[in-house]
Write a structure and sequence with these properties.
CATH topology of the largest domain: Aspartate Aminotransferase, domain 1
Number of helices: 8
Helix content: 10-25%
Strand order of the largest sheet: 14-17-16-15-13-18
Largest sheet: 6 strands, mixed
Number of domains: 3
Oligomer: single chain
Number of strands: 18
Distance between the termini: 61 Å
CATH class of the largest domain: Alpha Beta
Radius of gyration: 29 Å
CATH architecture of the largest domain: Alpha-Beta Complex
Structural class: alpha+beta
Order of helices and strands: HEHEEEEEHEHEEEEEHEHEEEEHEH
């Protein structure tokens, strides 16, 4: 692959940036010239009306074209130095006049740019097995607010086929499924997430409205309910005698998340609301623990197990996130 093709792969031209950068327009062609290596060489870069990029290097002493830098597996240090300078010139043009294209389809790339510009969130490609799939992460809370995947259309719409790109967003409201172009979530929790096919069925503006909602959800701190058994140790004395206390750290919990501590029989109720103020502390058993700060104490009769069941919490056997209905009740 040519040097130019390699450097500009997966990038698209922003033509209006060429002249401010230093290109000169001649007919339908843009030309940029740059001297380098103490003005002994000049690179001429051309972008034609098909946005094809070509380049030549001239030796200004001999006034001849220099081509040794294009030899594969260069061994000479001088030719390699010329090549490196030329590549840096191309990369500078790319960084100022082109936009990175992360995905295969036009709307996916447009939405990606809008997300990057608004939230400074760059797509993260986390899976070697799925190199075209990426997540968007809230830079403040580290939580996902979007997932882009390349899948077969039949996984969303039965009896169809062909590759598509989708965007999963957390909307936590079934009313969105009544809108054209929005489907039950693929791969994610269908109660909390939806899938949008990025095929221009929905406008960029409409999708960004939904992205904003998902981003707001990712900005919220998670709330957890964690069980404790008073038969094994004096939980109440332990919590109430210390302004800050250590607790075994559940998986996926984040700094500043809220923790509701549920005491099993004979209490069978939430008694404490706490906040995570420190994470990833090793204890003597080489387990991770977190430090919690007591925020609020509840009356034993306020949030009993029977009350919790009314809000969709049917068991408290291990740490888990608080259902949204219960969260609204606890925070009213």
């Amino acid at each position: 692959m040519k040097i130019e093709d390699t450097i500009f792969k997966n990038y698209t031209l922003n033509q209006d940036k060429l002249i401010p950068f230093g290109f000169i327009k001649k007919d339908d062609t843009y030309i940029y010239s740059k001297k380098f290596m103490d003005d002994t060489f000049r690179a001429d870069i051309t972008i034609d009306n098909q946005n094809k990029i070509t380049g030549k290097i001239y030796d200004l002493d001999s006034e001849c074209e220099y081509t040794n830098f294009r030899i594969e597996n260069i061994t000479g240090s001088f030719a390699l130095t010329v090549k490196n300078h030329y590549q840096n010139i191309l990369k500078n043009i790319r960084n100022h006049c082109f936009s990175k294209q992360y995905f295969a389809y036009s709307q996916t790339n447009r939405i990606t740019k809008l997300i990057m510009d608004k939230y400074q969130s760059i797509p993260e490609f986390l899976w070697e097995k799925y190199p075209t799939d990426a997540i968007f992460r809230n830079t403040k809370s580290s939580k996902w607010f979007g997932l882009i995947m390349n899948i077969d259309k039949s996984k969303i719409i039965p009896k169809t086929q062909g590759n598509i790109e989708i965007l999963d967003l957390k909307l936590d409201n079934p009313q969105f499924l009544n809108q054209k172009g929005i489907y039950p979530a693929y791969h994610m929790n269908k109660k909390l997430w939806v899938t949008i096919i990025l095929d221009d069925t929905l406008t960029d503006e409409k999708i960004m409205e939904l992205v904003d909602i998902s981003y707001d959800y990712s900005s919220l701190k998670d709330e957890w309910i964690i069980p404790a058994n008073p038969k094994y140790f004096d939980v109440i004395t332990y919590i109430e005698s210390l302004p800050i206390f250590a607790w075994k750290q559940p998986k996926n919990i984040q700094l500043n998340d809220y923790v509701y501590i549920y005491l099993s029989a004979p209490y069978s109720a939430i008694l404490y609301k706490c906040q995570v103020i420190e994470l990833n502390i090793y204890n003597d058993m080489q387990d991770f623990v977190m430090n919690l700060k007591l925020i609020k104490k509840y009356n034993q009769n306020e949030y009993t197990f029977n009350k919790l069941k009314e809000y969709g919490l049917n068991s408290v056997r291990s740490p888990r996130r608080i259902p949204s209905k219960l969260s609204k009740e606890l925070n009213k």
